[in-house]
Write a structure and sequence with these properties.
The protein has about 120 residues and is of the alpha+beta class. The chain is about 15% helix and about 35% strand. It has one domain. The two termini are about 35 Å apart.
Length: about 120
C-alpha cells in the first residue's frame, strides 16, 4: 500500500510527518487552486474515497491535500509538489536474502552467463 507523507524538520531537530486527513465520512480532503485561489475554504475543497484515488490525483498535480502533523497535530493544506510517496509493499534490497549469496556466483558462472 502506498502512503503519502510530507516531512518537516522542527527547530528542536525532530522530524514531523504529515499524513492525509479524512473527514467524518472517511474521505480524503483535497483543494484545487485552479478552481479558486482561496482553496483553504471548505466550499472550494473536494473529496476522494480511497488512498489510491488520492495518490492518483496527487501524482497528476495541481492540488493540495489536507494533512495533519504527527507531533503538533496541526492540520495544513500541503501542495502536491511537497508530498512524497512511500510504498510499503516494495521490499528493500537489503531485505533480499539472495543478494548476499556470493558463494552461488563463480567466475565460471560469470563467463557462462555473459553471453545471455
Amino acid at each position: 500500500m502506498v502512503r503519502l507523507l510530507r516531512r518537516r524538520a522542527l527547530s528542536d531537530g525532530r522530524v514531523e510527518e504529515f499524513t492525509p486527513m479524512t473527514n467524518k465520512h472517511g474521505q480524503f480532503i483535497l483543494a484545487d487552486r485552479a478552481v479558486d485561489p482561496q482553496h483553504n475554504k471548505a466550499a472550494n475543497q473536494f473529496f476522494v474515497d480511497s488512498i489510491e484515488a488520492l495518490a492518483a490525483r496527487v501524482r497528476k498535480g495541481g492540488v493540495s491535500v489536507r494533512m495533519r502533523g504527527s507531533i503538533s497535530g496541526q492540520p495544513n493544506l500541503i501542495s502536491a509538489a511537497e508530498i512524497e510517496f512511500v510504498d510499503d509493499d516494495e521490499p528493500l534490497a537489503a531485505d533480499d536474502p539472495f543478494i548476499t549469496f556470493t558463494e552461488w556466483s563463480s567466475e565460471a558462472d560469470d563467463k557462462a552467463y555473459a553471453s545471455l
